[in-house]
């Protein structure tokens, strides 16, 4: 992709972490999606399911930069069930999940646990989950909180004064 190559080149090799470089692609897609959406008076829909949203498995200001998250309350397994109901081809339903950030990348290899384990965790059924997977899931949830919250803003002077008066 020419845009990706130009952005990468402009960084003058100062950014060389694979994940940092790879996250440029979804951020460029977000720019294109918002240009198209604005031109047509549309909203940008996200594809994050409950599993991905819970652990922050999306690029901040990339595929996470959307207006609506219509399937964010569906587990990964429920998304697959819905796809079957809608007659989505089996080749798509059974395709190994991948964020497509680099060649050969797969979600489960990168995460270190399966979507089945993550679904089980979210259903509070930890019987099928390896103990190290529970720890990884909880760590990812904790450290991705900033992705699920809007940017913090300081209190206004009026708000500070109101709080002081109440004390």
From TrEMBL:
Signal peptide: none annotated. InterPro entries: NAD/GMP_synthase, NAD_synthase, Rossmann-like_a/b/a_fold. This is NH(3)-dependent NAD(+) synthetase. Residues 14-150 form the NAD/GMP synthase domain. Belongs to the NAD synthetase family. GO terms for cellular component: cytoplasm. Pathway: Cofactor biosynthesis; NAD(+) biosynthesis. CDD domains: NAD_synthase (cd00553). It is an enzyme of class 6 (ligase). It comes from the Bacteria. One of its GO terms (biological process) is NAD+ biosynthetic process. One of its GO terms (molecular function) is NAD+ synthase (glutamine-hydrolyzing) activity. Keywords: ATP-binding, Ligase, NAD, Nucleotide-binding. It catalyses: deamido-NAD(+) + NH4(+) + ATP = AMP + diphosphate + NAD(+) + H(+). It holds the Pfam family NAD_synthase. Its EC number is 6.3.1.5. Transmembrane segments: none annotated. It comes from Mycoplasmopsis agalactiae (Mycoplasma agalactiae). PANTHER family: GLUTAMINE-DEPENDENT NAD(+) SYNTHETASE (PTHR23090:SF9), NH 3 /GLUTAMINE-DEPENDENT NAD + SYNTHETASE (PTHR23090).
């Amino acid at each position: 992709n020419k845009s990706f190559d130009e952005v990468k080149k402009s960084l003058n090799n100062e950014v060389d972490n694979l994940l940092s470089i790879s996250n440029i692609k979804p951020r460029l897609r977000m720019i294109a999606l918002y240009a198209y959406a604005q031109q047509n008076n549309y909203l940008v829909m996200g594809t994050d399911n409950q599993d991905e949203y819970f652990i922050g498995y999306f690029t901040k200001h990339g595929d996470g930069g959307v207006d609506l998250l219509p399937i964010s309350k569906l587990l990964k397994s429920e998304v697959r069930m819905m796809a079957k109901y809608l007659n989505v081809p089996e080749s798509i339903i059974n395709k190994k999940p991948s964020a497509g950030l680099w060649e050969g990348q797969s979600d489960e290899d990168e995460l270190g646990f399966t979507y089945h384990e993550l679904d089980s965790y979210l259903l509070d059924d930890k019987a099928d989950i390896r103990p190290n997977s529970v720890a990884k899931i909880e760590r990812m949830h904790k450290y991705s909180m900033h992705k699920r919250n809007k940017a913090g803003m300081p209190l206004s002077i009026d708000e500070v004064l109101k709080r002081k008066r109440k004390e």
